Amino acid sequence: MATPLPAWAESIRSTYLRGEASVFILHGNVYDLVHHDGKLWPLTDFLRDLLLAKKEVVLRYDPSAGIRTLKRGKVLTAVESLTGTSPAPLEALPALEKILRANDGVALIIDYVELLAPGGDVSFMAEADRRALATLHRWSLDPRFDEADNVVILITENLPDVSSRLVNNPRVSTVEVPLPTDQTRSEILRLLEADATPREIERLSQLSAGLKAIQIRAIVNPGEGNDTDYADHYELARSAFEGAPDAAKRARNLARQFYGKPLAELKVYLRDHGYDPQRATDRYDEVFDLLAAKKRAILEKECFGLIEFVEPDHDFPRSAGSTRSSASSCRSRGTFARGAPTACRWASCSRARWERARPSSPRPSARSSGLTAIKLKNFRSKWVGATEGNLEKILSVVRAIGNVLVIIDEGDRAFGATGESDGGTSSRVIARIKEFMSDPRNRGRVLFVLMTNRPDRLDIDIKRAGRLDRKIPFFYAQDAEEVEPVLMAQLRRHRIQHQLELPRDRDRTTARLVGWSNADIGRCG
User: Fold this and answer.
1) What does the H/E/C string look like for 263-293?
2) Do 24 and 107 share a domain, yes or no?
3) Cα 164 to Cα 118: distance, rounded to the nearest angstrom
């Protein structure tokens, strides 16, 4: 029985067979390896050998590398004259159009379509971009393409980078290639680590959430057979672990951890650990540590300046403030962490009167629940379409990571009333975030925490059920007993020696601070 195609590939196949479209735009995780039938395929090879296997001729056009023949089932004179050349788009597209019109069973793959038909207003486009856009648009509407059994696949990473005239064309089908899911990552890891136990595969899959298949392979299996640096690290580690159980396996894992680093660093590591292999009781301990360290570095690099990973250093028992608000927040995050999707909130809104109460509240939430916490930074750009592209990149990473806490600070700015001075970009961004927040597929996997001092300035529809389900207010301390943990936390934070004894000294200290904000208490004295 044939292995089913990935969902996105099956979508292309079924749409094409129904005659709904012959021009497709592939976007998203297009520069990754595709896992299918126990093998990792480059996207172009997957398209040529599996999805387009019945096509007699498969051509590929890259604006920089020119025209290449990926599959030649029959000899075409026009193809032979173009292969290996690098004509400009004004020359290449008309030549490719002649081939598509004159022959049956031809597939054309065009890389970097955003360079041929970039997003933005047509009036600002160069003449070459306008003609390329008109050509691609005409192909999608030409019935002779369907009659000739030809197909055109356009590839881009960010869909907003492509002209909206092409994307919104009803005869052009847009298909997203997602990041590897939990099941896909497990299958990839079983392929790379055949002798790993199911528990180890599950742990590796959890740690690699949000990474591409090519990145997972580079971390777990970094091509050790052809790398002299790896061999040196492996030999050094193996000699240190000689005679211990699973010495070769543990040496391989340690060599992966120090892959690309100087050999001296590995020597220092082994010396610090006294060459004691028993310290690594789990043969995948080093891989777990490596994945956790490199995952954050990779995601921060891919989303540079767009998101910030929040490192919680304390949980609710170590935090001070409104105990009722903290308890409510803790219950919400606890339900999320237990993995009960139907009982989970979609999102929560933390409302505080002063700045001091807000930024710290999601940190103990993340620490107590064990969730990965990220904070949205300024992803807006002055370039047309770049803001939407940045947002889509963030949301794709958030969806792939799963079990993540997304923190949006200054929510009244992000979701408040906006004008149209930016050409409607803010409205589109807000609408997309609202759509993502209320997507039922994200329930129990993505929890939004929106913080604001002015909940009255939020849009009414963002506060409805299904978006911000729970509103958690942070008020000033209502009595001296609530002030005391705040005061003691401030004394610990600033390392102030004191002889206070509560509740003995309550009348002289905390009773006088009732009605003060946490920020005021932190600045007093």
Assistant:
1) HHHHHHHHHHCCCCHHHCCCCCHHHHHHHHH
2) yes
3) 9
Residues 165 and 240 in one domain: no
Q: Which residues does 18 contact at the CB level (< 8 Å), separation at least 6?
A: none
Last residue of a domain, one of 135, 157, 177: 177
Both 96 and 118 in one domain: the answer is yes
Same structural domain, 254 and 202: yes
Q: Which helix (H) or strand (E) holds 177?
A: strand 172-177
Using an 8 Å Cβ cutoff, are 391 and 427 in contact? no
- Phi, psi for 153 (deg, rounded to 5): -120, 120
> What SS3 state is found at 126?
coil
Q: What is the dihedral of CA 240, 245, 248, 254, to 10 degrees?
A: -60
CA atoms within 13 A on the CB side of 374: 25
194/196 Cα distance (integer angstroms): 6
Residue 107 to residue 72: CA distance in whole angstroms: 11
Whether 234 and 251 have beta carbons less than 8 Å apart is answered as yes
Phi, psi of 448 (to 5 degrees): -90, 140
Residue 271 and residue 315 in one domain: no
Instruction: List 407's β-bridge partners, or say none.
Output: 375, 449
- Counting as low any pLDDT under 70, the low residues of the chain are 1, 74-86, 222-229, 232, 243-245, 260, 262-264, 273-286, 312-370, 384, 414-423, 525
- How far is CA 59 from its chain centroid? 31
Q: Cβ(135)–Cβ(116) under 8 Å?
A: no
Token pair recorded at residue 187: 């299958």
In the chain, the amino acid numbered 372 is T
State which amino acid sits at residue 386: A
Is residue 109 within 8 A of residue 59, CB to CB? The reply is yes
DSSP 475: P
Same domain, 397 and 282: no
The strands making up 404-408's β-sheet, listed across from edge to edge, are 307-309, 372-376, 404-408, 446-452, 347-352, 470-474
* Inside any domain, residue 302: no
Under DSSP, is residue 170 helix (H, G, I), strand (E, B) or coil? coil
DSSP 8-class letter at 249: H
SS3 category, 411: helix
On whether the pTM is more than 0.85, the answer is no
Question: d(Cα 461, Cα 199) in Å, to the nearest integer?
Answer: 43
pLDDT tens column, 476-516: 878 888 888 888 888 888 888 888 888 888 888 888 888 88
